[in-house]
Design a protein that fits this description.
Layout (H helix, E strand, L loop, with lengths): L10 H4 L54 E6 L2 E6 L4 E3 L2 E2 L1 H14 L6 E7 L15 H20 L6 E5 L12 H6 L3 E7 L1
Parallel strand pairs: 5-6
Antiparallel strand pairs: 1-2, 2-7, 3-4, 5-7
Helix pairs in contact: 2-3
Length: about 200
């Protein structure tokens, strides 16, 4: 179970039938609960009459508003799907993509180490040029996921340990690859975010 990181060594996994997988489930390895000592940091000291909220209740409070993206709730997980591609091509983020990630990063910063962020790097279904920087769309998708994680890490000051990056190449993307506009929208990443 759980997600696997794609690499050049996973040719057997890449050769699976072309049936698109459903949107990926939350990774099993990343949902362990923190030690009881991990308490949320609050900038204002609570009054003595206020009991601190238990950490388990904080997940429901992860309210995200990202202009230019849809945020869907799936239990305790928030799924962020950008309405336009956030990459100009390759792994270069567009100015609009940077702005959206910066805005999202500001909202995630207060959660710090309590976050679990899975970044799913997406591509269109156009084959990769032979002899290029990437062997296939799976490699390109993973590089995009890593770029989004790196950008969010810097924008929000988040530790690298909260991120996991995956790619399904052309086998799964948020939009159908049926028009040039939709293929451009698939030059993106989808984020699955939860706080514990």
């Amino acid at each position: 179970g759980g997600m696997t990181l794609w690499s050049r060594r996973s040719r057997a996994a890449a050769a699976q039938p072309p049936t698109p997988p459903p949107p990926p489930p939350a990774p099993a390895a990343r949902v362990e609960r923190p030690a009881p000592a991990a308490k949320p940091r609050t900038p204002v000291k609570p009054a003595a009459s206020q009991a601190p909220r238990p950490a388990a209740k904080d997940t429901g409070g992860l309210a995200l508003k990202v202009p230019g993206a849809k945020v869907k709730s799936e239990g305790d997980v928030r799924i962020v799907t950008f309405e336009s591609g956030i990459f100009l091509g390759g792994v270069r983020l567009s100015p609009g993509g940077r702005r959206m990630l910066d805005g999202l990063g500001k909202q995630l910063a207060p959660y710090g180490k309590r976050l679990t962020v899975t970044v799913i790097g997406c591509t269109d279904n156009v084959p990769i040029n032979v002899g290029g920087r990437f062997e296939n769309n799976q490699d390109l998708g993973l590089a995009r996921a890593n770029e989004v994680a790196r950008h969010l890490q810097q924008a929000a000051g988040l530790p690298a340990s909260v991120f996991q990056t995956v790619s399904y190449g052309e086998r799964w993307s948020p939009y159908p690859n049926d028009t040039p506009q939709n293929r451009a929208k698939n030059r993106t990443a989808v984020l699955r975010i939860s706080a514990r």
